[in-house]
Protein 1
Amino acid sequence: MLEIKNVEKTFNPGTINEKKALNGINLHLNEGDFVTVIGGNGAGKSTMLNMVAGVYPVDCGNIIIDGVDVTRLPEYKRAKYLGRVFQDPMTGTAADMQIEENLALAARRGKTRLLRVGITAKERKEYKELLKILDLGLEERLTAKVGLLSGGQRQALTLLMATLKKPKVLLLDEHTAALDPKTAKKVLDITEEIVLKNNLTTIMITHNMADAIRVGNRLIMMNNGKIIFDVSGEEKKRLTTADLLEKFKVSAGEELSNDRILLS
Amino acid sequence: MEILQQLLNALPGSISQGLIWGIMAIGVYITYRILDVADLTVDGSFATGGVVAVMLILNGWNLWLAMLMAFLAGLLTGAVTGLLHTLMGIPPILAGILTQLSLYSINLKIMSKANQSVNVNQTDLLISLRWVKELAFHNPLITVGIVLVVLIGVLYWFFGTEMGCALRATGANLNMSRAQGINTSFNKVLGIMLSNGLVAFAGAFLCQYQGFADVKMGQGAIVIGLAAVIIGEAIFGKIFRNFALRLLSVALGSIIYYIVVQAVITLGLDANLLKLLSAVIVAIFLAIPYWKRQYKAKHMVRAKGGKVNA
């Protein structure tokens, strides 16, 4: 479903701030794979997702989504294949627009937007039903501005927007990191429910080691722009956070350092 | 008493001007509020609209067709600014200034001189300040008023379509828009075009109203537009929530601006100081939300500090 072939990326090349963010990444995801990604600061986790999404051009390598080489496509054209949720709850939604308007924008992802009405009465009903799944009371606030919602509500809404039109690949970039533990758990539960129900191919970056082990069917660990550990199936389920830290030490030759990392 | 009489006498004229500039201010609203870009093209495109309309009218064109061409010319000026920004990476304010400057030459070229009159005695016009007190269709109050209402209706419809929603989303959140497959560069250009089309259309009305087009007629237009947007929001912002009503509040803001201007002139203010006064008013209104935030931030820090100590 997703193939990342030999992708490299260096930021600010030739300057004092030169930073090799991706150092030859290779990753192949089958349909329905749910991959969690962990790694230290500056390991290249977010850069990898941004490369798939087309936020920056790659230096070399190819990105193939469902058989289509999207390496040269601009971000807005790739959006057709992708659902994205960002770390910052402000990024994924338009604060000045209504909840239903945000959903309607997402429903038209990958379609040409012409002079048809921006949101139909039928859609409004559908959105009301969909929002009930979140169980956050948003179904009664369809016309409220998104700016009035809490961070957790906005992330849940972004998740719904990202999956409203079934994406080929769902990209979650530490989407629970900015939330309090209780809300983070709720958003993660909703994430699992939606991903499993729709059998979505998903990459989820997380700073929570326990979540990384518990959620999904595959786990990769990154360091210095490379994938240093890739485990799936039964072997992944048996992992402990101690195993992961040890694995990191052996593979990377240093202790795992991440400002936000959660071990429990 | 005499002053009040003078004011009342001048009222139809002030309202007419307010309506014309109201169309222009709605154009500014589209860039400044919806697209979140301060577009300075308008100072040039306003005159372009007037210049194009006057020249076509003098050449015997149908009046409404001349207005349409002014609108199209405005779209074109907006396209230039939009492409300078999106294709050449020039910051939007600078892109607008570049277009505005080049339009000065272009407007001069179109007219072959600095100003050109259209005499209402010799030429048929849609509106004229001479008719502000007549009970007829060509009274600017009626013609411009109807056009304004129609325009608000059309814009209300447009911003509710898929395309209009994408434009609003582009102004609201670029990252989110791209993630949802919206071509943000295209929408920026589209928004700036639409804005300048309306501005030029208003310019075409103004030159008929005053009976001439002048290369300098758009000078400071952005400030008047911003003033109308800000006054409208300050007065009607709390009660007008609907999008169409918001556009209406911009037009009302423009009318209020012109009534106030007329009042201060009648009261004896040196008309040469008018632009200074406008700029000061806009600067203060732009500063108020910032000051409010600063005050609140200070206040909250203190409140929190108190809690910690207790």
Note: The mean pLDDT of chain A is 92.
Protein 2
Amino acid sequence: MNHINICPSCIHRNNCALTMQKDKVWSCSEYDEEVEDLTTLETVQEPKENEKRKLQLV
Amino acid sequence: MTTITAELKKPSKKSKKALVRGMMDNVMEQFNSAADQINLHPNIRKILSITNNEIIVNFPVKMDNGEVEIFTGYRVQHNNALGPYKGGLRYHPTVDIDAARALAMWMTWKTSLAGLPYGGGKGGIKLDPTKYSKGELERITRRFTFALADNIGPEHDIPAPDVNTNSQTMAWIADTYMSTRPPAERTANQHVVTGKPDGSGGLEGRDRATGYGVYLSIKFWAEKNNKSLNGKKFIVQGFGNVGYWAAHFLEKDGAKLVAVQDAYGSIQNQKGIKVEDLFKYSKINDGSIVDFPNAKPVDKNQFFTLDCDICIPAALGNQITADNAPNIKARLIAEGANGPTNVEGEKILLDRGITIIPDILCNSGGVVGSYFEWLQNRNGELWQLNEVMEKLDKKMKESFDKVFDYSKNEGVDMRTAAFCIAIERIEKAYIQRGIFP
């Protein structure tokens, strides 16, 4: 048995067409994991339409 | 020259855990086989059979809920006879010292064969990244970097991305490491990691380096055999970075993609599948190639036996085995993935006169790309894409020619030739330098 096995955390683990030997995979170009978007910048809140208009009037 | 005369000890059976059989055994078997072939000096065999350093760090990290969790990180440094240790860092529940050992040793052979001034290393943190927020992952990465401290460094040990780590992870490591240096030295330490984002010292073209290297290996093989790639049919398993870019460059050279397999399914069209069309289709189809309009589905078990000239397994290991090797039509196997052909499968292919460009050579474009990023940072330069590709071309050609010529001259297959060249290069360094004191 190979103890290095990346399949259990791959999003394709249940339907993967590549291999039946999912206990032996240590490297795979199709490996994909559902992780949060790692972008560190915070989302800028867009002003609402009416607030924008108000600003334009001022 | 220093001579060590002690006899090699037989490995202790008692110390061998049943669980570690597998990858480490495979790596050792490949090493021992090549060592026998080149009649490696027993003392150098002893040195290369074990790792130089194994670092285990337990470090605390504050979680989002205010609790503190302890993590275990590893870094194995196998050998640095040729230069700083080089190898990836992976974040995965299966990371442990044994996994890191096998992968570090593999990196030593890979960097040596590629003719780079690097040794081999590997490491990671035992964790499941899906269970942590991005903020927690950042703090885990930074604290791990701090815990490793001077065990890594731009001239000592240079990590890179691996499973579950990416350019963002590398940027955090570089930033943390640089912050621990005196102010005047900080920018001179950017090359402590490779695989950084484009805007933070990363290499332009790093995304296509491995796939381009796969294409080059095929091109060089065709040139050596006086064959043209024009009209040659090829199949690709895996349509990620490696498979896509290899197919992209092969198509530009006149070859015809006739079948693709990814995690979702397999498709075929013997008249040809346009690489860019398939790539665009997979982008809008959640990454899947299934139901591509200009191709028909294929049974996944028949994929490797489809009609073609070149087969590129670019996904995962153990794909070409005794089960499918007798029916493979391709005359050339270019191993874009790591370990796609098992021992039994390889024997059958070689008996049938099918050439295998081994993974250690075929997919080495990635580590060569890392070397270019390191050089670029070290020299304070910014390279253009065409410059990167030209240099990659030159470096891959050198490695390919060495392996091809050795294989012809010694009458061995290309994988054996590749391992022999890699180990001989390290042996030469030890013979020249001797052993301290």
Note: Chain A has one helix and no strands.
Protein 3
Amino acid sequence: MIILKCRGRHYKDVNHEVEMRWERGERDILLDEVNGHRYIGRALSGEGLIDVRGVPGDDLGMFADGVTVHIRGNAQDGVGNTMNAGTIIVEGDVRDIAGHSMRGGKILVQGNAGYRLGIHMKSFQDDYPVIIVGGNTGDFLGEYMAGGMIIVLNLQENGGASPVGNFTASGMHGGKIFIRGKVSQEQAGRGIGLSEPNEEESLEISSYLEEYQQKLDIHLPPLDLRSFTKLFPLTTRPYGCLYAY
Amino acid sequence: MARSLLFPEFKIERDKERCIACQVCVRQCANDVHEGSDTEDTVVSQEEKCVGCQRCVNLCPTNALTVQTRKDGFRPNGNWEDRHLRGIYKQAETGGILLTGMGCDRLYPVYWDHLLLNASQVTNPSIDPLREPIELTTYLGKKEEKLDIHWEGDSPVVRTRLAPQLGLEVPVIFSAMSYGSISYNAFRSLAEAAREAGTFCNSGEGGLHPDFYPFGENIIVQVASGRFGVHRDYLRVAAAVEIKIGQGAKPGIGGHLPGEKVSKEISRTRKIPLESDAISPAPHHDIYSIEDLERLVFAIKEAINYEKPVAVKIAAVHNVAAIASGVVRAGADIVTIDGIRGGTGAAPQVIRDNVGIPIELALAQVDERLRLEGIRHHSSLLIAGGIRSSADVIKAIALGADAVYVGTAALVGLGCHLCQKCYTGKCNWGIATQDPVLTKRLNPNIGRRRLVNLLRAWAFEIKEMLGGMGVNAIESLRGNREHLRAVGLSREECSVLGVKAAGEGW
């Protein structure tokens, strides 16, 4: 394991050194004393671990392409922005637009998420992005979502309040969102269907939750997957009838 | 459904004497205008389906066809033009937004046509480009404040680390047209022509098909709000990366490629499911401020290790000069500005024709603002939106641009006849379509040659005009508005353009 102290260093310098080492095959790197450094783990291709101690800055894991980034506390905006593959593990909260346009890989968050989580996630063939949030999320969850899966576990339950905000799945035209706890049709965007997960989906969720527990090293209480609400798009062509000829 | 209140826009005349009923027109029309008969030697035409693309006219072996705009249409009315009535009929019928393609076709002033170039007479000699070299090479990217040059014996060594540059042999780049909005063969023609002519083409926002990765050195890739096909290799293979904020044809709104056009190859290139709508939201949702833009600019610079320039494209809107200043300060190496006449594969007509400002005014204001703020050298200015000829190119450069983008002009070079129906996917010229029968009509080898010819011809003309002014390098003309004079413009327009009226001396 390589330990890099980040205190007093510019992110450009840190990220450059990380990439140099990564390309040389040093695939187990601990970044210590991280304090607002942006773009950690950016565009790293292939498997390996970046272990982050401290508070990383925006766009953590931007364009990530296989790397595992493990954050021992909270992360800021843009976690996993436009990421392609890999895993981002956050033991605390993530803020806005985590998983923006994510195309593959996983973001596993133990705490809560901010606004626009998983906005415009998409999938293609084997590329299938998954986001799991342990707590709750802000407005516009899964906005423009075109593929992949988002699971909101609502572990704190917050006295029965809905774990997601308004305009959930607004403009969604692909993929699936599973929410544990209250979510109403009014909270969801137009053209969104609500149902419960089927057998196959329950198995799928279970297997992702297995990985979630293992990667975060936590134990979830028993969850009744049948009580989850599934949000799905009623059409893949939301703008199909918007135009004259 | 009641019969449409619309009547045909075009009149098709078939000279019976000339028509040999060979049915070429029947086979060539994707709109099924012409219909042949198995039993009789006649072809009939349904004018209401005609879009006026002239494909059948062009290919008729006996020149039997003419397609003209119908003159005897609606009752003449100075207020209610044909387009208003047609729009209302269509909308009353469907309840939908009117779509269109290509650039704004309204009669707003085209300032290029009000600007005249200078030439040398007596007091300074003009240059003959056929006899003396005239330099058109242009470098796009951030220029240094000063150069630290150190002499090692007799040879100078530049110690300053120079910012990455795009080197153009001719100051014209093919503008962003995605594979999706245009066909594979059209994209291939552009990429091959860019490589041969020593310039660049822009991938547009639809990702880059694997076949075009080998052309990376001549491709600028785009990162737009949909982030289609954007990943590490896409960013790294390209010569430069352009963040698309806005487009001249549709400032302020996003776009989407309708599911019908999302074929197998398009879905592979964009990395989205087959036949689903490919939606580009109006804003980038990770950019709500100049500071956020800076974050994305540097995210991309980080991903490409600061090895290539990053451009930011904005539409020409009312406050464009201040916005461009912010874009420069956000770290853009190139600022692209797209004017109201910029083309599109599909846009709501009401937006295309009413939102934004002409590029000439935007360019003049941006160049002036950046110079006044002392940051003009931080970014190059690349302009787009209605460049139709080499004269427009040279006027743009005199007005302050470093280089220009051409989209429509390149497509016209490939055979486009400006029927403005790109959004239907039924382009009879094989350009704005994914239908394999239609795309076959454009041979990329012929396409490449035509585009290379076009750039070669423009380069000659630009050199002739430069030589006439007594200027031997295009760099010396950049932003030199003394070489421009205005005709037929108001004092305000002259002042916005920063150009004197024709007849005024130095």
Note: Residues 138-501 of chain B form a domain with the TIM Barrel fold (CATH 3.20.20.70).
Protein 4
Amino acid sequence: MGKKVLMKGNEAIGEAAIRAGCLNYFAYPITPQSEVAEYLAKRMPEVGGVFVQGESEVAVGYMLFGASAAGARVFTTSSSPGVSLMSEAISYIAGAQCPCVFVNIIRGGPGLGGILPSQGDYFQSVKGGGHGDYRMLVMAPASVQEAVEMMMVAFPLAEKYRGPIMILGDGLIGQMMEPVEFPDDLATDPSDKDDWATNGMENRKSGSRNLVKSLYLDPEQLNDHNLLLKSKYDQMKKEEIRYEAYNTDGDYVSLIVSYGTMSRVCKTAIDNLKEEGVEVGMIRPQTLFPFPDAAIRDAAVKPGCKTVVSIEMSMGQMVEDVERCVQGRRPVGWYGKCGGDVPTPEEIMQVIKEGI
Amino acid sequence: MQHEVMFAGFGGQGILMIGKILAHAAMEAGREVAWIPSYGPEMRGGTAYCQVVVSDRPIGSPIIKSPRHLVAMNRPSLEKFANAVKPGGVILINSSLCPDRSGRTDVDELAAPVTDLAKELGSVRAANIVALGAFVARSGIVDFELIREAVKEEFAQKAKLIPLEMKALDAGRAEAGKKQRT
């Protein structure tokens, strides 16, 4: 770790990608993530990397597909409407098993919506924005530092599972400046792609021909392919769940489930409630897929915990996963706001007090 | 202890920059900091603002509806935010551009003609740094020397401006010391 520097989330995400050994970046500008492109347009040439601004997000998605199929480490950043346009490519990338990192700095929707922070793309990211049976490992940072750390692990994870990975931030994570320390540069080279990438025969040890595709017309072959993808998603559920538990060591009357920027506001509310003598715990999923099912269930059914509430900057998306985890053993509520008006700690304190 | 500062003014007055300089200086002092810009449509012609949170412990909610302090570089900024400031905070008003006062009796109000002071120093563009010097001196939010260093770093690419900006900081500090606390 080096010296602390003050950086915007968007710029830090760009720098983290370089430190993670990713020298290929394709993107199209959109508020509130345009500073990533602005930063990397300057920075990529300095480190011998490539930035190409695509003609649209549709093109950018397929530029990632092509670069990844050829064995390159590659990423893009966008915001909600742009990610919708990339979703077709994400489905193809998942089907063709190509490691790619996508960053979505969410803005309010639907449609053009607004440009302020939102968490309205939970379903799109976690349940699949594109078609077909695929899942995507989704990580949600709550600070600029965490966004950097997630970028650093995203590339090795994308290569481990050979598929798309998403970092799901919101406008505030992108726009906010916080002190950040960059982890040491990733020493590892991109993983061995000899057995699948279409990276030319010249250096291929196996000598066999590689084919990258998502088309399987034979029903048995396609079923086998889907089973293979499923086995990867099952492995993610075993190995990649990340979450933070806050104020859950002692007893608490209510459990909050919240992620990203929203979870920080919840932490302030929890600290304030503690001063008033009301104990509230929180599980903050850092991975939204795989979801921390067991942690949420265990925290919800702890004796003394009467209610569970999912607090999100959406009209109630993650709450469906929270309900699934709690399995009806506690009442599950939802509170949230859209449009960029982030709920205040006071509002959350009120919601909790009314719930218990 | 947590301080939140709202810097507000016209787009182009260097509002975001002085917020960043304060955040930088506080970071160097070992404090937790967060800097949040306005990036909505109000940047085009209306009020531009940013919030800086400085704290002794990890910052929870980075969005603050009631800041402890306000630096209002123009009249609309004062009108928009004066009532949100917590009792006991500092409200700095750029009296060169804003004839109004906050009307608050529970805050430390400082009316300083920062635009005029900057003009006297030779550049109206240094008004933001005059305001920063006055605000930091008045609030004591960070050590003045750290602000000096952070300004030098911010202007490292335009080093010929540094002597002017140092004078601007000092002019702000002198102005803050001159006026009686209310």
Note: The beta strands of chain B are 2-10, 32-37, 47-55, 69-72, 90-94, 108-112.
